Amino acid sequence: MAYSFFPGCSLDASAKSYRTSIDWTLDALGIEVTELSDWNCCGATSTHALHTPYVDAVPARNLALAEAEDRDILVACSACYHRLQRTHQALVEDPVLRERMESIIGQPLTPKRQVYNLLEILASDEILKQVQQRRTDSWKGVRVGCYYGCLAVRIPGAEGFDDTENPMSMDRIVEAAGAEAIDWPHKTRCCGASLSVTGPEYAERLCDQILEMAQRCHLDLLVTGCPFCQYNLDVVQWQRDSSQEDKSIPIVFITQFLGTALGASFKEMKFASNLAGVEALKRRMET
Amino acid sequence: MATEKRRETSTSLLRLVEDLSQQAVQRCYQCDKCATGCPMLEQMDFSTNQLFRLMEIGAEDEVLGANTAWLCASCYTCSVRCPNQIDIAQVMDVVRTIAYERGYASPLERFTGFHELFLDIIRRRGRINEVSLMARFNTNPLDLLSQSKLGWTMFRKGRLKWPSPGVKDRKSLKRIFESAADNKEDSHGL
User: Fold this and answer.
1) A157 and A272: one domain?
2) Which residue, A60, A249, B8, B154, is the most exposed by fewest CB within 10 angstroms?
């Protein structure tokens, strides 16, 4: 099944390594995607933060584009996924809203196409089996903390593709890729998201709590599917003074991790663009 | 029905918030579950459930003047845990929007400037370019300087891109913002 891929704004720049590793990994796994044509920003976090009247209209344009392409949408960024999925759900449940959105967008919104998160596609039985069969030993013995953050798994009122309190999709991917997925308490703890710009001291505190717990659980690295989480946890560690360097925990995109397991090189997965702890990780992998 | 009856006597802010958020704030029975799981609780003037109570008794100025909604990180922990299925984070979005439109200042100095700029870029280009967003946001030379080391590192690491394409069909964007804005005036009356 082919998907319309919704990259979102970060994947072109600060999360470029996510995009590169997604393209490589999906290709390797035979998951067919085409970028959603002329997509627009999902609105996160500014539409809901301060401009709630636009909160559904902005993502709805993308849903209409996918309808026109007659494909389901695949979303990698947790924030984009949250906004698109919430609007999709609201349109299914509320015919009055749907009518209003159709008149605003000027296109029909049936909405029969679904919105999928990358994690749920990668954690399907068929893909996991393929990964188990094809993986290398790159991550053997590595203790991985799966960091889901907030927005991929917490969509109020929705069934969701994973558990809101103890999600396991990424854990299953990590295990299939040959590493040890460690059960740890801060899987779904908030990194502060855009507070890192508007109230950095608050976001830093939240990031520190997550990183401290990762230390206490002796995790070698964290994997994430969210550009916000990756950026916040990566930058907070980069900003510490260099004496803290040995305490750094690499924050790795799930597809960088999976691609490596499937035989991609560190260079192909753009590990050099990560900020914290990557040199140490590289040394460890090479020995 | 009980809820409807209580609604008649409810305060205007409460009614407005319930209407705009489509959430039944009055279903809150103060179990404190939202507050317990809130990662920002320690920094908040009132917890989310306290804010609900203040709304119910009509303490509008306290509700709109509190830092609670501004500090909400929108993590949705409360929303998925609420035993009364109140999407609390969505209520916070609406309280914050109302406070902003009524001229209450954000306790986070950079909050409204950032989100106004962000929305303006979506309105004009349809997509965010992180370089132009941060360059326009950090217009103070001191901010720029403090950000420049990070900026340089991000550049060196291949994590900056400028320029980047916007949405081609600008007309459809314009239409969204114009009609949604009309709609806002019709229904919100903030």
Assistant:
1) yes
2) B8
